[in-house]
Amino acid sequence: MAGATQHQERVSKRADSVRVLVRERGLLDVVSATEKLWSNGRSPHNVRVRDTYIRNRQMPDGPLWTTPSETPELPVGPPVDERRRPAPHILPPLARLLVSQGVAMQFHLTALFVAQCQTRPGGTWKNMIPLSRNSAISAPTWLDLMAVSASAKGEVAQASTYTRNKLRQFRSALKFLSDRNLVDLGRSGVGRRYEGFKLLAEDSSSSGAGVTEYRVPRDEEAHLEVPAHFFTRGWVHVLTKSEIAAYLMWRHLGAASSYAMASWQQRAGIFGLSRDVYDTHQALEAFGLIKVVKPKERRDDGTWRGYTEGAPLYSHRVHVLPSGLAAQSHEVVEKALRKAATLGKWSKPLDV
Predict the structure, then answer these.
(1) How many CA atoms lie within 13 A of 201 on its CB side?
(2) Domain count of the fold of the chain
């Protein structure tokens, strides 16, 4: 793209990746297998995620960007920089999965969805799904339920090589989740330890000293409800990890029923998210998932018109659109990305 900005080049490459995910990586087959698993199971309208998977119970004490071992030289501590990622020790479990590489977040959310399709509230889930197909049985595998942009070096990879790379990403994701006490892989060194992995409680109640087995949340437990369409329409596979985290934050703040705002203190201290994650509201609005009402004084780049020191700064107000997830994710996202690549800014396609 001659003369394109970095933003245009980035969204254009992402649009190409979505197209490859559909045409060569079997996204439509994954969506079909997911819908079949949902309809053949308990068919939950919403998937329940415990509150403390997404947020801290209360605002952490002390600075948000330094660990307890980092003693500031000055009594007032480091300057506030609300664009930084909060310190690791205050992050809730979901925010800890915001890493640049891998599919740990998507795999874990998909596993929670599968568990609730197969298990009643209050029950424990026994994972009987193999990573890959090793017999003639027609039951789904994790290969069938996860769309991954894994490929060998070069533009084209043979199916067998792609499958090996996809399984490698699954094992890497499960190791990552195990290190964060979200899954149990059994004893180290035991063969096939990734098969039949066990989900642990997603609310950070497990630790190296002891683990708590995952149970599907009951009605009376504090939880967030994520519509099943988030999984059965493939959104979990085509949104970035930052977009997923921001979307769940907005739902938790009540934006699904009315307009909600998030101050930088809430976003960083309660949800453990950086300003870059917050800024995904532009993409989420272009995808038709949310509606954003901006203060009239605030420009698209985040700066303020006529700002004077000490003046109040008002946050965007966000509403989660109830029908947004019902659309086929790959069609909506690719159209929005192509338009952003052309215009150089986020804008909702006319037919979304």
Answers:
(1) 16
(2) 1
